[in-house]
Amino acid sequence: MAGTGVFAEIIDEEVFKYYSEGEWMKSSSGKSVAIINPTTRKTQYKVQACTKEEVNKVMGNAKGAQKEWAKTPLWKRAELLHKAAAILKEHKDPIAECLVKEIAKPAKDAISEVVRSGDLVSYCAEEGVRILGEGKFLTADSFPGHERNKYCLVSKIPLGVVLAIPPFNYPVNLAVSKIAPALIAGNSLVLKPPTQGAVACLHMVHCFHLAGFPKGLIGCITGKGSEIGDFLTMHPGVKCISFTGGDTGIAISKKAGMIPLQMELGGKDACIVLEDADLDQVAPNIVKGGFSYSGQRCTAVKVVLVMDCIADALVEKMKASIAKLTVGPPEDDCDITPVVTESSANYIEELVVDARKKGATFCQEYRRESNLIWPLLLDNVRPDMRIAWEEPFGPVLPVIRINSVEEGIHHCNASNFGLQGCVFTKDIDKAILISDAMETGTVQINSAPARGPDHFPFQGLRDSGIGSQGITNSINMMTKVKSTVINLPTPSYTMG
């Protein structure tokens, strides 16, 4: 059970503690925040509602600990990260249990997320040693008009305190994707978990605690974003923000000031299917891409743009794949589980109702029980329907029939999002040309959009974010360049 065994110290009287100064603490506010189980719609866990004073203390500790941590040899930082990764994997079951109960993630996917997170931390440790162990040596005479009288040594140094804010859908994986690069680069880390997913994050932080990182280096603040969110993101102690989530990120970017920002804010990932595509490959690929974890993924297929001449055939094959999906509680490893909150389910329903009013073809009967929405394919969707542009973040997938590749590219590029896209075709030349024309951070050829492997670059355009993620890019983003220039005296003798 969560909060028992090795994790017993992170909970007190049914309220999970926050993490500061290397210890698990109760907030002086005396208040807690309830975490609602999406399946039962009852309170599953409670976490501390931290105060601004506690935020200040965590920030101060992180700033102080970072100065010493930056002096720690790179191999020692990597060693601790490897240790944390091993502990994380060792305790995958109780952490996965939290994911099942907090965010209704299917049990097998919850285990996979924790294991993947451990792998990410280990890879990050190795990659950090490679990247940060190298520098540059420049000579002045490589630029016109200069003699060889200056040497420049270029290295990467840490930024300071990194604020990490992961989303509910992958709270552990997207937390460690920020934590590990920050720590290997010599930064300290303050984590603000999402409400749904906070307890899984606290268990994950405890794995780093057990690994023996210095006190104060890692802090984890829980509470309502409405009360401490702005205070955290605008805190003068923060030198970098890595955020994954929704529209909140745009507001953060406007307030954060002159610090590096790494933001991934959602997508309306378009899938373009050409006439020559292998529909037996395409249909299950799109269904998995669109409905995995009930469509609650920024990289889920959000709109299918299919050539009209093959649309009937593709829709029939997709309907057959959808019919095989299991629907029910996450404990039963169902493919479709309840969406995270009632308000999310209500929003998805709004989009469905709008599509019905405007004449979309329902390939299945719309069915909802509480937060559980059955998978729904909407055919003959037109651009005047909200579902054509808005991100449902649920198990509803629109199909738009197109008459040309250009029409599909235009729809993709007209979106305010630009995270990922994909194209299915046997013609690699066409695929590359379409990829070049699609204004998205990543284009997948003959596969649905996906984040990962975790060392691949991951970024979006427009409202999908700024900066680039992926292990290597994150390490580079969480450092700054330092130059040391050696000025040599003019020799008073002739070399020869």
Automatic annotation (TrEMBL):
**Per its UniProt entry, what is the enzyme's top EC class, as one word?**
oxidoreductase
Which reactions appear under catalytic activity for this entry? Answer: D-glyceraldehyde 3-phosphate + NADP(+) + H2O = (2R)-3-phosphoglycerate + NADPH + 2 H(+)
Homology family = Belongs to the aldehyde dehydrogenase family.
Task: List cellular component terms (GO).
Answer: cytoplasm
Protein name per UniProt: NADP-dependent glyceraldehyde-3-phosphate dehydrogenase
Aldehyde dehydrogenase domain boundaries:
24-483
Keywords in alphabetical order, please: Cytoplasm, NADP, Oxidoreductase
Coiled-coil segments, which residues?
none
Catalytic site: E264
Name the CDD domains for this protein: ALDH_F11_NP-GAPDH
This chain's source organism reads: Stephania cephalantha
**Cell location:** Cytoplasm
Coarsely, its chief localization is cytoplasm
InterPro entries per record: Ald_DH/histidinol_DH, Ald_DH_C, Ald_DH_CS_CYS, Ald_DH_CS_GLU, Ald_DH_N, Aldehyde_DH_dom, ALDH-related_metabolic_enz
Keyword Cytoplasm assigned to the entry: answer is: yes
